[in-house]
Amino acid sequence: SDTNMTERFDCNHCQESLFGKKYILREDSPYCVKCYENLYSNTCEECKKPIGADCKDLSYKERHWHETCFHCFQCKNPLVDKPFAAKEEHLLCTDCYSNEYSSKCNECKKTIMPGTRKMEYKGNSWHETCFICYRCQQPIGTKSFIPKDNQNFCVPCYEKQFAMQCVQCKKAITTGGVTYREQPWHKECFVCTGCKKQLSGQRFTSRDEFAYCLSCFCNLYAKKCAGCTNPISG
């Protein structure tokens, strides 16, 4: 007569029977706890022991810890479900990291916490909300600014406070102006009274305080040759 064969249920590695024992499935194959831990358990970074199947395995950047071993390197307080920062392989709570490594705000002198936005300029750091224009007191953020006398100014405030105004258009001169009769002009505003060509870098002359290119001046004011009627210049 046929004998009923009971299907075997063995550990995929050591082949011992798993009937009545605790086992773990991995990729649909059963393993006894001992084999599973030997083959697949991660080693804890802190205590260097395997992280068993009945333990929580906490991982960060391909490194692993027991739940009880996952704590701040400095103060040893647990980091589970808390923000932390990594420095030179060590994990630190935000308080310890701030005390040890965070920069101080140049304005309010308080610590700039990890993960918060900060502004940096010439080796100094600011909280984003502390990096403000000296004149209007508004945050500069990502806008252009101009430093002067250890203070930072947004461009409109700098122009109002320091920039010379063009005698022609009355707007601020921020780069490369021209001085004529001790008055400031934009290069593009300093033009020939006659033909309106820019005079910056050109030879020009003046009459009644008006500037002219040589061509216009000759046409307007130079004596004409009786023979050819062309202006006599020079």
From TrEMBL:
Specify the protein name: FHL2 protein
Which Pfam family is one of those matched by this entry?
LIM
Q: Which InterPro entries match?
A: LIM_FHL1/2/3/5_N, Znf_LIM
Task: Note the superkingdom of the native organism.
Answer: Eukaryota
Record bears the keyword Nucleus: yes
Keywords from the UniProt entry: LIM domain, Metal-binding, Nucleus, Repeat, Zinc, Zinc-finger
What GO biological process, any one, is recorded here? Answer: negative regulation of transcription by RNA polymerase II
Q: Where is the protein situated, by its record's location annotation?
A: Nucleus
